Amino acid sequence: MSWNEPGGDKKDPWSGRNEKDNPPDLDEVIRSLQDKLGGIFGGGKRGDSSNGPSMQSIGFLAAGALVLWGLSGFYTVDEGTRGIVTRFGAYVATTQPGLNWHIPAPIEQVQVINVEQQRFIEVGYRSGGGQAMGSVPKEAMMLTKDENIVDVRLAVQYQVKDAKDYAFNVLDPASTLKQVTESVQRGVIGRSDMDFVLTEGRSEIVAAIKTEIQSVMDAYKTGILITSVNLQDAQPPEQVQGSFEDAIKAREDKQRLINEAEAYSNDVVPKARGAASRIVQESEAYKEKVIAQANGDVSRFSQLLAEYKKAPAVTKQRMYIEAMEQVLGKSNNVLVDVKSGGSIMYLPLDKLVNKAGEDAVSAPVPTHEPVVAPTPQAKEIRNDIRASSRERDVRGR
């Protein structure tokens, strides 16, 4: 008996399964689903067109759909961002961070813009994701005031300060900022000399570029705030870099020699000025001294003249004695007038004193020897010297 004949076991000879275990037919599944949906909407079974869906069920479904549509209008704005709400494409409001609601799409839509993110553009080079910088000659090469070409590479950092202006006033804010930066950069470099750009003028150039870029972006109402402008590199073209380095070395040598000369000048000039000031002061002091001495001599001579007119003889004698005193006072010789004889004894005291000093230095240590008494002639000479000294003192008084 074959497997599909009446009375057979109805087994599939290829799969070995019973037909009763096969999955239900797809048409039957669809018909069953349609019957269930018809029951929900209040209709009868399939093929029964006399009963349609009830109005109450349609209302429930509409209300549920409306609630779900309204709930889809809730959205969250993170910290550091702003939400731009548009109604059919027109600006409505700017929402702050937190939970907000708008009329769901397609009536209103929300665009979230990060206002604290630091964005940047590169002009004259491309960093290449952390790799070595590659120059872009079309953007980097520019002409200076003295008609030289320099390779300038600039990086500009910015952030959004007005989300509304950033979203609506400019189609592509980053591209606009880059074009403005190139224009401003060429203008500032074109007003400066090459040496100023490559050496001491970098900070001034960066400040001028930042100020002018911000001014232009504010005029365009782009809603962009320039936070920093960094001059990555400024150098002459590769073809003349060797010559330019030689020129820089020569300039540095010149400046070094100038500094050394100034240091030497600062050391010598103050000393010369001090010496000149000292000589001038000494001259002034000598002048004052001579004038004072001359005034004193005049005053003394005037007083002496007055005394001379009163007593000429006494004044002459006094002047003679004072002159002899000044002359003989500087001499170490002593003249002794001995009364017993007509000769004058001459005693060279300076030689005697010097000889006595030499004898004292070269003399041996004294021993306990008997002292010899002076002779009568030595005593007489000593007494005459004392008497002469007393007489001279009396005359001086």
UniProtKB/TrEMBL annotation:
It holds the Pfam family Band_7. Residues 1-28, 364-397 are annotated as: Disordered. InterPro entries: Band7/mec-2_domain, Band_7, Band_7/SPFH_dom_sf, HflK, Membrane_HflK_N. SMART domains: PHB. GO terms for biological process: proteolysis. Residues 7-28, 379-397 have a biased composition (Basic and acidic residues). It is found in: Membrane. GO terms for cellular component: membrane. The keyword Ribosomal protein does not apply. Its main location: membrane. It comes from the Bacteria. GO terms for molecular function: peptidase activity. Keywords: Hydrolase, Membrane, Protease, Transmembrane, Transmembrane helix. Residues 72-248 form the Band domain. Transmembrane segments: none annotated. It is a single-pass membrane protein. HflC and HflK may interact to form a multimeric complex. Belongs to the band 7/mec-2 family. HflK subfamily. HflC and HflK could encode or regulate a protease. This is Protein HflK. The lineage of its organism: Bacteria, Pseudomonadati, Pseudomonadota, Gammaproteobacteria, Methylococcales.
